[in-house]
């Protein structure tokens, strides 16, 4: 691909050539695992009631299941709701090089469009892989500048990534796919500050994903975008300066989907290295929470910027490192089910949180985002001074979770929603490339109760 071509054209040519049968097996397996993981994240959102307000705002009926509920909606409304709900518990995958979460940004939209068009599982796999590449490559180019400018990466990237995935499913030729991505660059919008209210913020991701879908459908009708909008508009708006080489290097030869992290804790990803480090310290020294007199938690400045030191409610607790550590140490896990107003008000939780101090350490900024670690210094009630450090949270590509871990995550989050159907959903998600059609899975994702 000639470097002189506009990036939208380069990406359009790439997207038009993505086919499941030409993908490496590890990329296909990575899609299946992230499909299951996204369904687990959505189930956590439904358990917290994240879908209720949107179901009321977007009434009607249609062919696409609103995951984990008794409702169905038309294409656009299903995309908005399922995307927002998948993002609402902050339990989906992500990439430390983009500051964003590609699965909730594009998998619900790709699945909905694939269902409507009668696509096969293999076609859906190709669409998701293409969407991930656009998300991750554009994300690397603009991060961390985009966050420093006040934007949320997930919402900004959801539109072009969804447009790419939709272009595959719509079988757009290279020229039309390029226009779809170019148009979509104007339709992702989201602010980092909005993350501090997890009750409303996920809507910006759902709307941006819908914007990407509409961009692809519009391009399929013949609408044109501006070919150099990425270089002259998208980069200038969200990064100031960015390297086109980051987007094009290895395109079509290297696949990024297997390099996103997966989560076993709820809340912001910035909480997770501190949680893993605190748990590691406790395990290494055989400590119980009552043994901790104080705990000093050090993180990088980007992580601290998202920290809510004194959470007032469960939504804010998702951005509290002290709350997340206390949940893990006292309750045994820090999954989304722990982020409740009742847990925040619990006297034992409050007492442990009061003994945890979180601060920035400039030394942890070195190497960010390749390393996004945490250092723990603890003083025990018997006077010992103990330390523990991690370069990265668990679940990163360097220390990935196994398939069995994500299956357990699905069981713990979605089992109660889907009952006897949960096992079949899990099996179908993990065999996604071989499914001749997606209607059976869509039907199973409509739970018998709302």
What does this structure look like?
It holds the Pfam family MmgE_PrpD_N. It comes from Achromobacter denitrificans. Residues 268-423 form the MmgE/PrpD C-terminal domain. Belongs to the PrpD family. By secondary structure, the protein is of the alpha+beta class. It has helices at 7-16, 25-47, 52-57, 75-88, 102-117, 121-142, 145-148, 153-169, 174-184, 202-220, 229-238, 244-248, 272-285, 301-305, 314-317, 321-331, 341-345, 347-354, 403-418, 422-430, 439-444, and strands at 64-65, 72-73, 292-299, 356-360, 374-380, 385-390. A hairpin with a 6-residue loop joins strand 1 and strand 2 (72-73). The longest helix is centred in the first third of the chain and has 23 residues, at 25-47. The mean pLDDT is 95.
Helix content: 40-55%
Mean of all residue-level pLDDT scores: 95
For the record, give the distance between the C-alpha atoms at the N and C termini, rounded to a whole number.
49 Å
What is the strand tally? 6
Alpha-beta content class: alpha+beta
Q: Report the biggest beta sheet as strand number plus sense, adding barrel if it closes.
A: 4 strands, mixed
Task: Give the uncertain stretches in residue-range form.
Answer: none
From the spread of the alpha carbons, the general shape counts as globular
Strand proportion, as a percent range, falls in 5-15%
Number of helices: 21
Order of secondary-structure elements:
HHHEEHHHHHHHHHHEHHHHHEEEHHH
Tell me the Rg in angstroms: 21 Å
> How are the strands of the largest sheet arranged?
4-3-5-6
Domain MmgE/PrpD C-terminal: 268-423
Family: Belongs to the PrpD family.
Protein name: MmgE/PrpD family protein
Domain MmgE/PrpD N-terminal: 11-243
């Amino acid at each position: 691909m000639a470097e002189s071509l506009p990036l939208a054209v380069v990406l359009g040519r790439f997207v038009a050539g993505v086919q499941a049968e030409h993908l490496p097996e590890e990329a296909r397996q990575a899609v299946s695992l992230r499909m299951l993981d996204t369904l687990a994240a959505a189930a956590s959102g439904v358990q917290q009631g994240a879908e209720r307000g949107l179901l009321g705002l977007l009434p009607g009926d249609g062919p696409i299941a609103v995951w984990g509920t008794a409702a169905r909606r038309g294409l656009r409304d299903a995309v908005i709701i399922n995307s927002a709900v998948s993002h609402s518990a902050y339990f989906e995958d992500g990439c430390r090089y983009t500051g964003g979460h590609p699965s909730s940004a594009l998998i619900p939209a790709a699945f909905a469009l694939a269902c409507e068009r009668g696509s096969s599982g293999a076609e859906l796999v190709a669409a998701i892989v293409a969407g991930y590449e656009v998300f991750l490559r554009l994300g690397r180019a603009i991060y961390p500048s985009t966050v420093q400018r006040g934007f949320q990466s997930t919402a900004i990237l959801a539109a072009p990534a969804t447009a790419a995935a939709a272009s595959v499913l719509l079988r757009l030729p290279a020229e039309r796919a390029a226009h779809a991505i170019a148009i979509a660059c104007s339709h992702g919008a989201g602010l980092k500050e909005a993350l501090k209210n997890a009750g409303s913020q996920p809507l910006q991701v759902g709307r941006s994903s819908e914007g990407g879908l509409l961009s692809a459908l519009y391009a399929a009708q013949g609408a044109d975008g501006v070919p150099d909008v990425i270089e002259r508009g998208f980069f200038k708006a969200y990064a100031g300066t960015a390297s086109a080489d980051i987007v094009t290097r290895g395109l079509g030869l290297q696949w990024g989907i297997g390099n996103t992290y997966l989560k076993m804790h709820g809340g912001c990803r910035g909480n997770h290295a501190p949680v893993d480090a605190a748990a590691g310290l406790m395990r290494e020294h055989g400590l119980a929470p009552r043994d901790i007199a104080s705990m000093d938690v050090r993180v990088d400045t980007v992580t601290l910027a998202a920290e809510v030191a004194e959470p007032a409610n469960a939504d804010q607790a998702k951005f509290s490192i002290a709350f997340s550590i206390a949940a893990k140490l006292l309750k045994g896990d820090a999954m989304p089910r722990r982020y409740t107003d009742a847990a925040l008000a619990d006297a034992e939780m409050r007492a442990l949180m009061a003994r945890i101090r979180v601060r920035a350490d400039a030394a942890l900024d070195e190497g960010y985002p390749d390393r996004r670690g945490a250092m723990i210094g603890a003083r025990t009630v018997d006077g010992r001074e103990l330390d523990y450090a991690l370069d990265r949270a668990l679940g990163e590509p360097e220390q990935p979770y196994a398939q069995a871990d994500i299956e357990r995550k699905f069981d713990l989050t979605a089992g109660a929603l889907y009952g006897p159907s949960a096992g079949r959903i899990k099996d179908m998600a993990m065999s996604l490339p071989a499914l001749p059609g997606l209607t059976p899975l869509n039907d199973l994702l409509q739970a018998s109760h709302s």
